[in-house]
């Protein structure tokens, strides 16, 4: 079923409208096409509704021919994308039914799956008190510093991440078996094509060691998996965040989320100077979150285990980016230096272990 204004899609949206508020009457607002031509994300408005004014519909229909801005139109890429939609469907079916104000996500209202097609109907965060999105330009060369709104939104995201991570520490892997075994979209096992063309031989040689170190990170938890700034919405005061887009949620080291988030919320030229600020905010929030969700854990010990993993987590992301798009702006002096730091620390630890 194609994702466009076809008769079949209209009937589909009519059925959703009727199931949500008893009338087929609705208006469609297309928010965006999905990556690679895999469908669309729309907001259905219900003019006659007295309770639910709108819902978000993620309508995935596998295309005959996929698109990719970097040319990665491989069968493995397609399989990874299909798996991601299966995971997201599982997420909204099984993990969103109890609303948590400390790390809010849209509640899944309906999930349908057919051959080559997925349909996820979820709450509209705009109607839940999160109408704002970020306008931050991470590549703005003429802008100095960060506005109050940008700082507030950044801190709100770090608060959300800290609570999400704390909440799911030591979750039973069997309880999340329908999600990614290892979260994030750049996980090494799912990116052999990018690794094979990676020119950075040092990073290539150490890719499995980096991956292993992240897997051995103490206090494993769920990670969002694509925690960029664009995947958060904010309340009217920009002090609280809610997250969307759970295609790559799964078990892993929490620092992978923090590294990706920082790459989207701090300009490259500022990263070295702002690194401690970002990490300090995150771990301050994590301390509060652990007191709420995991009072049996010692926050100092968790931070001592996680903070040193930040460089390793970013080196893992650097491995992906340098293979995927060697000239990408996310490869810069800061990320190169951080990757060298991570590799140096790993080599030093190996030397100590051998001794």
From TrEMBL:
Residues 120-292 form the CHK kinase-like domain. Keywords: Kinase, Transferase. The keyword Metal-binding does not apply. GO terms for molecular function: kinase activity. It comes from the Bacteria. SUPFAM superfamilies: Protein kinase-like (PK-like). This is Choline kinase.
């Amino acid at each position: 079923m194609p994702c466009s204004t076809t008769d079949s899609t209209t009937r589909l949206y009519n059925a959703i409208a009727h199931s949500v508020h008893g009338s087929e009457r609705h208006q469609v607002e297309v928010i965006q096409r999905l990556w690679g031509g895999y469908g669309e994300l729309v907001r259905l408005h219900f003019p006659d509704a007295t309770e639910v004014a709108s819902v978000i519909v993620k309508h995935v229909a596998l295309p005959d021919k996929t698109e990719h801005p970097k040319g990665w139109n491989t069968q493995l890429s397609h399989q990874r994308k299909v798996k991601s939609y299966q995971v997201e469907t599982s997420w909204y079916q099984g993990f969103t039914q109890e609303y948590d104000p400390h790390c809010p996500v849209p509640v899944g209202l309906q999930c349908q799956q057919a051959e080559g097609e997925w349909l996820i109907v979820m709450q509209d965060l705009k109607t839940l008190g999160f109408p704002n999105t970020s306008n931050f330009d991470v590549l703005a060369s003429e802008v100095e510093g960060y506005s109050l709104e940008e700082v507030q939104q950044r801190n709100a995201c770090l608060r959300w991440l800290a609570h999400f991570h704390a909440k799911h520490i030591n979750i039973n892997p069997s309880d999340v078996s329908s999600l990614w075994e290892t979260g994030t979209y750049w996980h090494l096992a799912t990116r052999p094509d990018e690794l094979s063309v990676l020119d950075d031989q040092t990073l290539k040689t150490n890719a499995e060691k980096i991956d292993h170190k992240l897997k051995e990170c103490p206090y494993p938890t769920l990670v969002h998996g694509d925690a960029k700034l664009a995947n958060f919405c904010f309340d009217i005061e920009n002090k609280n965040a809610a997250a969307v887009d759970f295609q790559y949620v799964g078990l892993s080291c929490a620092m992978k989320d923090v590294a990706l988030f920082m790459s989207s919320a701090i300009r490259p030229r500022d990263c070295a100077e702002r690194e401690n600020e970002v990490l300090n905010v995150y771990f301050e929030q994590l301390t509060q979150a652990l007191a709420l969700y995991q009072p049996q854990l010692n926050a100092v010990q968790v931070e001592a285990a996680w903070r040193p993993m930040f460089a390793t987590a970013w080196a893992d992301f650097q491995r992906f980016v340098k293979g995927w798009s060697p000239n990408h702006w996310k490869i810069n002096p800061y990320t190169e230096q951080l990757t060298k730091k991570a590799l140096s620390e790993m080599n030093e630890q190996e030397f100590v272990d051998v001794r």
